[in-house]
Each structure stands twice: as structure tokens, then as C-alpha cells.
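anyone seen this seq b4? input:
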Amino acid sequence: MVSGGKGFVLWFTGLSGAGKTTLTQALVPVLCERGVPIEVLDGDEVRLHLSKGLGFSREDRDTNILRIGFVANLLARNGVNVISAAISPYRSTRDAVRAMVEASGATFIEVHAAATLAECESRDVKGLYSEARAGRRPGFTGIDDPYEPPLEPELTLPTGAESLEASLERVVAYLEAEGLLRTLEPAR
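predicted toks r here
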């Protein structure tokens, strides 16, 4: 927890299949073991419960991300640490969420899950890229709608090139270095 009783927002962004949810699922138990309470706002779950009815136009995508950001900010400014795992394709919308969180005194950490489009397509467990390539899913991020990578994220994880464990270690090391996670004493 940051000073003043504020939480942090760890914002994973990247293409569908880049590893955002996988990283989140691996990180949560590590944080819990270290005594860091955490809430997760997963893009797919938020679309189902908080943003039901929104489509995939730019306006609807922005609305969805701003809703996630609003909830993340409410939690963080009240001392709850948050992980968001959402594609969040547009830089200006992510920047707006960052500004909202930082204005409340909480810490915003942008983490780019930087797998290439080819790597994401090769992991296409939901068949979304195949549907987009076949024209059955118009406006799909990375195919016929842009993904704007962060210009200066706090962390860039080459999730197609490095192991999950290596990416996880880098996130934990960053949180420790920033004083957001207690450093473990080495085993004797």
C-alpha cells in the first residue's frame, strides 16, 4: 500500500492472447502470500457484469475502459490494490485512467504484455482471431482495429519471448523496488 493509505492499480494492457489474464492469475497468489490484498478487474468479466450491452465501437471500448478505470480508482483511493487485465487498445483512454488514478493520490502502473500479433494468434484458444480473419468479428483489435502500445509503460513484458515465471519475477521486483510490496528476506 502506498503512503496515505492509498492502493495501487496495476494495469495490464496488450492484445487478446498476450497473457494479461495468465499473468494476473499467477500474480494474485504471490501478492496474497505477501499479505497484499488485491482485487482483480478482468476485461472479460467486466464486459459481462459492468459493461453488458456495450459493443466494440471506439466509443463503447472507451466507455468500457473508463468504467474499469473508475472502479479501479474508487478501490485504490480507498486503500485497495487493484489489477486490471483488459486489452485497453487506445493510448488516450489508458492515459485518462492514469490521470484519474494519480489525481486521487494512488499509484498507476502500466504493464504492457507485449506479445506480437503472430504470437497472440498462435495462442488463439477462443478462436477470436480466426473469426476476425474470416470477417465474422469485425473491428477486432489487432486485425481491423488498432492497438496502440504504451509509449512509456512502467514495465514491458515480452510475453511471447520470456517465460511466465520471468515476467512474474519482473513484476514482483518492480513492486518491491517501488515500495509497494515487502521484500522477502532470503531463506537461511
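The two ends are 27 Å apart (CA to CA). The beta strands are 8-13, 38-42, 81-85, 107-113, 155-157. kinda curious what u guys think
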